[in-house]
Amino acid sequence: MRYRNCFKIASSIFLAIFIESSASGQKTEIQFGDSAFQPTTEHPFGWRGDGNGRFPAANPPLTWGRLAQSVKELVAQSKTPKPGDKGAPLSEGLIRDWLTLGPVPIPEGKTAKDDFGTDEAKFAPTTGDKVGSLEWKAITLDTAWLDFWPMYNNATKDGKGLVAYAHTWIYSAEGKPVFLNLMLSGSAKVWVNGNDLGSFVVKGLQDGQHLLVPLQKGWNRLLLRVAPLDDVGWSKGVIQWHFNAAFFGTDKSDYESRNIIWSTPMPDNGPGVGSPISVGDKLFVPVEAATLLCVSAKDGKVLWARSSTYADAATPKERQEHPEVFAEIDPLQAKIKDTLQAYCNTPEKYFPNVNLLSREQVENTQKITQLLKKMDSGKYPGQSYPAEAGESGPTPVSDGQNVYVLYGSGLVACFDLSGTRIWTTIVDIQHREHGYSASPCLVNDKLIIKASSQLGAVILNSKTGAVVTPVPLWKSKGLHSMSSPLSISVGSERLIVQSFGVITQVKDGKILAQRFTPPYYNIADYVSPATEGRTVCSYILAENAGGIRFAFQTLPDSITDPLVMKDTKECEYNLKAFPCWFSYDHCAAPLLYQGLAYILSVDGVLTVIDATKGELVYQKLLDLSPFMKHHGIIRAGCSSSPTLGGKYIYIWDNQGSTIVIEPGRQFKQVAKNRIEQLYFRYGPERNESTISNPIFSGNRIFYRGEVNLYCIGPKDK
């Protein structure tokens, strides 16, 4: 208890912002999450607020939602329906009651994807029915996952040559079709009312399946046959035998909403990785292609939009020496501006044509980039690899006077709050494979930017955009640029905390601590550090295959060179007991609160660690239904970082569902919510991906999905 109180006090001091009261001249404490909070040079507002995801002064709602009527009407039960049976509602589109059968041998000469010739399409079991020596058994779930392996691991060593069945009854009053998201461990087949919806073959890498399910009025039979998988990407040797099933509506006009004050269509349809920031009564949101939106926090009205291209960083001398290049560029710039203004005028009309218009924006931006690359490929590098995170992965940061925004192309721009451009510059942040999503960090007049191509980071003068100091940290230029730097103080000295426990001085970029091995390309640099009081939490290299390891360093009271920590604790754990999509990845940043670290995996497993002891407190598979495929940002799963909003912790998956829990050493869920929104960009419609981080202000939550920016809160009476 003594440790928790110390951390609570330290956290309060670290987060508190003191302003002069005009009435009394006394200092008034304004914390993150208070609707009166205003960013300043000393206390800017950026990624996760101050980088740590704590908004203690907020008072957000516990419940909200937007559900399709076609899903809301569904009920399900495992037993064979009788007249008058009402079933159980599908809370957030999830089936809780199943009948299971297994492990069932695959017939000789068949594979897990084949027709077994056993009339499976006619299966309509009830509890206790026998199939040979096996029996259909009822199971009620407390999460979205049905995990067969714990049920059958005593009956088989590895599950080879076996399958398991799951069956349930679904009642639809209207008989409307619905979408079904399926995360499957291995090869599988699905039947609805005896109709074969397809076979899904898994060879080493699992992928979620998105199916259109035709339902008839009345009761419907849903049957799944799932095979295990013993090779899960980079975490080999773990038997995975499970599925996660979630229903979504097919009609975007068929929603019932509560506690959603407004939603504003975004002009890009994603990826939507970068989060909004709050400055007074305005929200600033990064969107594609290299565009910053200013939105009214009160009603969601788009106030202005500013696009940035490489041409905005061109000098008068370059324009003078290459008039033919800029004669082609200027009309393209004008088209981009006109399109954005049309969006600002009527965002709701822009939405039906978002694919076409956003594609035009991207194409015009790319044309400008190619023209300038031919002119000077050194200054105008372009992007080095197709980006899953898009160009707008980083979250902006503001000191209350200006907004600083960074894009995956290396463009950095500064605007005042009315949208006037102050400066634009280019930083070489070429990346590999997954894109760039490291957010900038502002410390007084210095803007710190992660730049793996520059072997670490670079510090810009926030007033001019000029490079002040390169900060070499790593040994490889191929590092994934995902984690964000954040600021902390030791005495009067401002320091920058980077991934892997690297700590540098802001004034000169000097490395004071480099406790752990710097990462190379094949080491994931996804997980950003977090701090509370003098504790720094960093993701570091695990000693065992499939392990995840975090370090908790206690900073000294004053600066030394090198920096000598008061204490360092480490905790290594694994997730081998839980369902896994690919490789136990972690993308979300930890939340440190009252001495506990809350850490989320992409599969929705919450791990809580005592930061003072480096000891595991508990692990819990959350009642979430992430949907992941090996293309686009949707593969990121539960990548939204756990966030403290007032008294509770809010945890999102990537399909609009949110778990709300009480902080503490025992898991206690207090609410669950879901927002449905059809997404139209690629292939069959699906629910929008939601992997950005929420921000809290008073009794409101602001959150960005692929399609919309949402304001969640109690509606005015």
Write a brief structural summary.
The protein is mainly beta and 717 residues long.
Q: How would you describe what is shown here?
A:
This protein is mainly beta. It folds into two domains: 48-64 and 259-712, Methylamine Dehydrogenase, Chain H; 67-248, Jelly Rolls. It is 11% helix and 38% strand. The chain is built from eight helices and 55 strands. Strands 5, 6, 7, 10, 12, 14, 15 and 17 form an eight-stranded antiparallel sheet that branches. A hairpin with a 4-residue loop joins strand 48 and strand 49. Helix 6 (323-345) runs antiparallel to helix 8 (354-375). The longest helix has 23 residues, at 323-345. The model is unreliable at 1-25 (pLDDT under 50).
Question: Which SSEs are present, and which pair or pack?
Answer:
Layout: H1 2-15, E1 17-20, E2 27-30, H2 48-51, E3 54-55, E4 65-68, H3 69-72, E5 75-77, E6 88-89, E7 97-105, E8 130-131, E9 134-135, E10 137-140, E11 145-147, H4 149-152, E12 162-172, E13 178-184, E14 188-192, E15 195-200, E16 209-213, E17 218-226, E18 229-232, E19 235-240, E20 242-248, E21 255-258, E22 260-265, E23 277-279, E24 282-287, E25 291-296, E26 302-307, H5 316-321, H6 323-345, H7 347-350, H8 354-375, E27 397-398, E28 402-406, E29 411-416, E30 421-426, E31 441-443, E32 446-451, E33 456-461, E34 467-472, E35 486-490, E36 493-497, E37 502-505, E38 511-514, E39 530-532, E40 535-540, E41 547-554, E42 567-574, E43 591-593, E44 596-600, E45 605-610, E46 615-621, E47 643-645, E48 648-652, E49 657-661, E50 669-675, E51 678-679, E52 686-687, E53 695-697, E54 700-704, E55 708-712
Parallel strand pairs: 3-47, 4-50
Antiparallel strand pairs: 1-2, 4-21, 5-6, 5-12, 7-10, 7-12, 8-9, 11-20, 12-17, 13-16, 13-20, 14-15, 14-17, 18-19, 22-55, 23-24, 24-25, 25-26, 27-28, 28-29, 29-30, 31-32, 32-33, 33-34, 35-36, 36-37, 37-38, 39-40, 40-41, 41-42, 43-44, 44-45, 45-46, 47-48, 48-49, 49-50, 51-52, 53-54, 54-55
Helix pairs in contact: 6-8
